[in-house]
Amino acid sequence: LPPPPPVVYTVSGGSLEPPYYSFAPPLALLEPGRTYAFRAAGISAAHPFAIGPARSQPFRSVACSRHQGCA
Prior knowledge:
mainly beta
């Protein structure tokens, strides 16, 4: 069987107070082994979006593109 298609989230916002970002569809629990794509849609330059195991620790294996988002 082919792998399932990536789960795509559109991310907007970037507030300095909760909720920091908005996700469409609403963010669900991320499953190990699945592929996810995060597409930027008006993220504030004052609070850019990043993904990692802890605050200020972005994953090194996350591939990002200004036009394609991060996967």
